[in-house]
Amino acid sequence: MPRGLFITLEGLDGSGKTTQIRRLAAWLKKRFPAEEPILTRQPGGTETGDRIRALVLDSRSSHLAPMTEMALMFADRAQAIAEVIQPGLDQGRIVVCDRFTDSTEAYQGGGRRLGSQPVLELHRLLCGNLQPDLTLLLLPSLEVSLERARRRNQRTAEQQGADEARFEQEQDAFYRRVWEKYREIAAREPRRVVLIEGDLNLDQVHQRIVEAVAARLISHTNGD
Asked: Most exposed residue of 30, 90, 196, 208, measured as fewest CB within 10 angstroms of its CB?
């Protein structure tokens, strides 16, 4: 059986990933009605991962050291690969993941100033160096992303009582480093990463996404 296709979406909180993943999933279901894509997220997506997510994103976890934070992200990722991502790919399925190691490189490597090298080395050791076939990097302006993220987290806290605002408490300089690291990753890996930047509307972003996915599906089917 041919290996499945692994697609990740990346970007700052507030970049619109959640909405675009839903729209991409609907597009994929129409294109492949016999088999729905597997949707997952990081941190989270498994029972263990959801517990790690609650710890890492809770604003009360402000005492976490940067290395601890990065280790927790990779613990979550290793479990997700073993439990969800690799089995799905082995079954020939399309797996769509909200965040992967690029997020760790951007947030912990860039934002926390740990650098790219330890992130990439841990990915090699703990994740078998599994690479997405396609990464869609949504990068609207920093100001727009932060405003959306803070508004969304306030709404989530009010409606669900969930606290996932730990990262949103960081200063703008932290997010500037994250944003710049994402651009560095895109420049380093242009064959894998499709950069969708600028303050585009939902339909414009969706169109860019489906064009990129359709092209990658063709090359994947042809074995390129």
From this structure: 30
User: pLDDT tens digits, residue range 28-76?
Assistant: 999 998 889 999 999 999 999 999 999 998 878 778 999 999 999 999 9
Domain ranges for the chain, please list them: 5-40+84-221
Q: Label each residue of the chain as H, E or C.
A: CCCCEEEEEECCCCCCHHHHHHHHHHHHHHHCCCCCCEEEECCCCCHHHHHHHHHHHCHHHCCCCHHHHHHHHHHHHHHHHHHHHHHHHHCCCEEEEECCHHHHHHHHHHHCCCCHHHHHHHHHHHCCCCCCCEEEEEECCHHHHHHHHHHHHHHHHHHHCCCCCCHHHCCHHHHHHHHHHHHHHHHHCCCCEEEEECCCCHHHHHHHHHHHHHHHHHHHHCCC
- Give the predicted TM-score (pTM) of the model: 0.90
Looking at CATH, the fold of the domain delimited by 5-40+84-221 is given as: Rossmann fold (3.40.50)
